[in-house]
Every structure is written in C-alpha cells, then in structure tokens.
Amino acid sequence: MGEVIVITSGKGGVGKTTTTANIGTGLAALGYKVVMVDTDIGLRNLDVVMGLENRIVYDIVDVANGNCRLKQALIKDKRFENSFLLPAAQTKDKNAVSTSQMKELVGNLKQEFDYVIIDCPAGIEQGFKNAIAGAERAVVVTNPEVSAVRDADRIIGLLEAEQLHDPMLIINRLRPAMVKKGDMMNIFDSEDILAIKIIGVVPEDEAIVVSTNRGEPAVLDMTSKAGQAYRNIVKRISGEDVPLMNLEESDRFVDKLKKLIGIR
Amino acid sequence: MFDFINRMFGKESSNSKTVATERLRLVLVHDRANVSPHMLNALKEDLIRVISEYMEIDQAALEVNLNQEDNSVALVANIPVLKMKRNYASGAPSAAGGR
Ligand SMILES: Nc1ncnc2c1ncn2[C@@H]1O[C@H](COP(=O)(O)OP(=O)(O)O)[C@@H](O)[C@H]1O
Ligand SMILES: [Mg+2]
Fold this sequence. Notes:
The structure holds two protein chains of two kinds.
Chain A: E1 3-8, H1 16-29, E2 34-38, H2 46-49, H3 60-64, H4 70-73, E3 75-76, E4 83-86, H5 99-112, E5 115-119, H6 126-133, E6 137-142, H7 146-161, E7 168-174, H8 176-181, H9 187-194, E8 197-203, H10 206-214, H11 225-237, H12 249-260
Parallel strand pairs in A: 1-5, 1-6, 2-4, 2-5, 6-7, 7-8
Antiparallel strand pairs in A: 3-4
Chain B: H1 2-8, H2 16-35, H3 37-51, E1 55-57, E2 63-68, E3 73-78, E4 81-84, H4 93-96
Antiparallel strand pairs in B: 1-4, 2-3
The complex binds adenosine-5'-diphosphate and magnesium ion (MG).
C-alpha cells in the first residue's frame, strides 16, 4: 500500500507543479514506484514540465468517467520505468471530477504505487478539494513573500479542517543574497509564522527555467543548487534525516575570499 | 520619522524583510480570527464565565473585537458591569479548570 502526498499552496505560480515533478522524479530515481497526478483540470502543466506532453491519449476525466481503464491513461516516464504520469484534462472544466471519484481513483493508484504525488491547482475551490480528497500527507509550497505565506496559512487551516495534520513546508524561490541584505524573509521567519515543519528550501535558480524548457526535472541535474535542494527534500520525504542545506554557503565563501584579497 | 532615523543608522527595523514579517503577522491575526469566528465567540463565553466569578456583568451588551491600529492589533472588550460581588469566588473550580 503506497502513500498519497498532495502538493498544494493556495496561491498560483509558487512552484507546485515544479515541486511535484521534482519530488516524483526524485523518488523514482531512488527506485520507488511513483505516479504523479495532475489535478489542475483546464490548466494542465505537469505533462510539459515532465516532457511528456506528446504522449497523452487519455486523461484523469476519462478515467473518472469510465471512458478508459486507469492503466490506459497512465503515461510512462522517458527516464524511469517505475515512474508514471496521470495527466489532467485540458478542455473540460474543474467540476468534471467529483471528490468521491477522486478518492476512488487515488485509492486504486495506492494499490499499485509506492508514492502517489498529487499536483494541486491554485485556489481553495473544487479543484483543491479534489486534490486533497485522497491524500494522507500534504506538502505546502510557499515563496518568502507576504501574499504567498498568507495563502499558505489559509491552506494549512483548511488542511487541518480536513484532518490532514502536520503538513510539510517547502520554501521555494529563496534568494540568499536578498535574505542577507535583509530584503527577504528567511526560512526561520516563515517557519515561525506558519508553525509547521520545513522539509526543504529551494533557491531561485535559472536551472529551473532551463530544466522546464527541456522537460527534464532539475532533481536529475547534479550541478544545480535547486537540484540538490530537491534531492534533499526527496530523501526527507522517504524518511531519511538530512540537515537543511545552507544556501548562504557560497556567499560566505565569496565573503571570505573578498576578505582575503582585501575587497570590502 | 523613526523609520528614517533607523534607516540612517542602518537599524534592522528598516529592512523590507522586517516590514514584511510585521505586516504578515498582523494580517494573519485578522485572517485567523475571520476564518474562525467561533473563536471570538468561544472567547466571549470564557470571558463571561471567568468575569462572573468577580462581578455581575451585562452579558447581552458584552462586546469583544479585534481592533487594528497602525501597526498593532488589540483585543478590545467592552464589558458593562452591573454589580460587584462582595466576596469574589477566588479559587472556585470553574475559574481554574477550562471547559
Ligand atoms: N526555484 C525556482 N527558481 C526559478 N524559477 C522557478 C522556481 N520554482 C518555480 N519556478 C518557475 O515559476 C513558475 C511557476 O512555477 P509552477 O511550478 O508552474 O507553479 P504552480 O504550479 O504553483 O503554479 C514556472 O515558470 C517555474 O519555472
Ligand atoms: Mg501548477
């Protein structure tokens, strides 16, 4: 019996889809059998981020309505035999799937996979309710800015009301240089305010743009900082105890260098 | 003005990060209170129970609100007192135990 994890945030554009693709692919790279489910009906994205957009025949609405069998709609990943995508429907509307259909679908996936990772749409309406319907754990993604953290707080309250306790927090798009100047909230500020456990901090990184362009999740990129951050998150999700990565390390190094050669 | 002085002396409080956390703290006080109006009601009931140990109050006229000032939020309670008790019930079990 696998575990169902929903990736949610409230606010749009904070990095849910990117996080889903990287956590899913990272878990697959560790050998787990993984399925990623795109529940953003009408605004499907996960297929593109995964580089699988050309292979879609059926989607989640087809499965929910019995137009095809579940297995027929699952798209196998290019890189890993043990990784699959269940795409969202692009042309139907958000209410095309009901909460009970979603629960049943996720229940079936759980039988087959070690991890079911659900990419949640923005907002707190039907799409959100569907995405969390069958979930057992939740990852809340936020950015270090007032509006994103505020929405995250609201989402944590709603998750709590749905008995999804102890969500895990990911702070995405942190800019260490701005934190250092005092112009961006640091991880402790966000953690303190939201009072939930941080399982990762992902820096703002051009490698994410490049990897999204290519359709290859950054978690497989051994040279990028974001990739390293995602690999650490994946380990923590799978139960390993990994200390939080110090995103200021390289700046400190530069500082030391500057001091050594006398620039200040 | 303080802000300006702080900035001149490079005090932390002029950082935009500090402004952000402060604004966030205030907005969340309101968000959380609005999301669960039950909370203010529960607080009201608890207040009535505790205060009644000491004085007789006009329960119907009691008001409890969160008031926003410039950069703080205050819990403001207006509780009309009808009568003081002569012997207040200190240490009564209901005063210590919750619900
Ligand atoms: N750590 C990051 N560094 C740089 N760009 C990022 C990062 N995380 C996300 N992005 C970019 O932000 C945009 C929104 O991300 P996405 O995952 O689609 O958010 P959501 O699914 O929450 O709407 C995308 O263009 C993505 O490439
Ligand atoms: Mg998305």
